[in-house]
Amino acid sequence: MRTVLVILGSLCCATAALAGPPEVQLEIRDHLFFPAELVVPANTKVRLLVINADPTAEEFESYELNREKIIPGGRKAVIFIGPLAPGEYPFFGEFFPKTAQGKVIAK
Amino acid sequence: MLLTTVVLVLREMLEAALIVSVLLAWSVLHVRSRRWIGAALAAGIAGAAVYAVNAATVSEWFDYVGMEVVNAAMQFAVCAVLLALAARPTARAATWPMLIAVALAVVREGFEILLYLSGFIADRGAWSTVALGSALGAGIGISAGALLFYLVVGLPRARALRLAQVLIALFAGNMAAQGVLLLIQADWIPGGVQVWNTGDVLAEDSVLGQLLYALVGYEATPSIWQVTAYVAMFCLLFGLFLRRSTPADGDGSGR
pLDDT (tens digit, 9 = 90+) per residue, B183-238? Predict the structure, then answer.
């Protein structure tokens, strides 16, 4: 049953992709993520635009989201995430993990 | 900061060190010169520096997913040269695939380390801690590589060759799966369904999870396309090795 739902979800997303996935913005400043809690629609692919306002590079990393990407200092980058089942997905900045912590909340 | 540096450098070093050591073992098992390794490492480090300097530009290619595309291309290039190696494992020309595979592995992992270190250029107070952390991380990574190297070459020749073949096929499968994941992340190919979720049994960020990630590309929640790419590349490569295993076993009788 769950598989069927996931497949249906993927199909919906494939259709939605034609119109372009919704975009969500995340900013890195002083080795912190803003917002630290990012709410995204569940079961939908999302275009995550990460703006690194720090002069230093940061690596967006999430085991739960299966994502890993370096964003050079002062630049922006795009990471596509999902479609995600409703729930929480922690992420962190691998270069400054003590402060750079956040989570994606899919609902 | 010390621990962060150790973990980061170790993670990147480990992946590169394991592939370097297996290919080095391969070259020893085939009684071939090991001089290519110096050139491969030098080319890899130079490539990593060039990539790191141009990271900001590359990052903005293809509508801000340039890094995924370039990194995926490097992963697939490693798969291609490993296939070339498997197709003609005993040929003199086999040195080139090994050289290219090692150089690209060093570019990919080295570039991340360089970008991380570049963040501390202005922070003189952090230099000694970061240097110590890098040395520790690099030291552990290289030790793990050396351990694997001696483990492989210490076996009887036939078993050593077989183990090296399995490991090379696993690395190639891992590279193919990582390349596919990068293209999913860039939205160049669809994500597909998640095949399993073993996050509760073995977390990817645990020590064992990290080690298995570096060694066999362990993933707690892989997509169907990652698994497909992994299995297909492994079978293709290992199949090529099996087909060629008789001449491969025969050419190093002098050992």
Answer: 999 999 999 899 999 999 999 989 999 889 988 999 999 999 999 999 999 999 99
Q: What is the pLDDT of residue B250?
A: 45
Residues of A with CB under 8 A from a CB of B: 3, 6-7, 10, 13-14, 17, 21, 45, 47, 49, 55-57, 59, 63-64, 66-67, 69-80, 82-83, 94-98
B120's CB contacts (< 8 A; 6+ apart) are B126, B127, B130
CB pair distance less than 8 Å for A7 and B181 = no
Q: Which of B56, B193, B220 sits opposite A63 (nearest CB)?
A: B220
Q: What is the ipTM of this complex?
A: 0.89
- A77 contacts on B by Cβ (under 8 Å): 59-60, 64-65, 67
Taking contacts as CB-CB distances below 8 angstroms, the residues of chain B near A97 are 4
For residues B199-217, one letter each, b for 16 or more C-beta atoms within 10 angstroms of the residue's C-beta and e for the rest, the string is: eeeeebeeeebbeebbbbb
- Contact between A78 and B63 using a beta-carbon 8 Å cutoff: yes
Plot region of B32 (φ>0 → left; ψ -120 to 50 → alpha; else → beta): beta
- Are B183 and B175 in contact by the 8 Å Cβ rule? The answer is no
| Domain edges within chain B | 2-121+130-250
Q: How many domains does chain A have?
A: 1
How far does chain A reach from its first CA to its final CA, in angstroms? 20
Q: Which long-range contacts does B192-195 make (Cβ < 8 Å, 24+ apart)? A: B192/A10, B192/B223, B192/B224, B192/B225, B193/A3, B193/A6, B193/A7, B193/A10, B193/B223, B193/B224, B194/A6, B194/B221, B194/B222, B194/B223, B194/B224, B195/B222, B195/B223, B195/B224, B195/B227
Nearest-neighbour CA in chain A from B31: distance (Å): 39
Query: Which residues of A fall within a CB distance of 8 Å from B205?
Result: 63
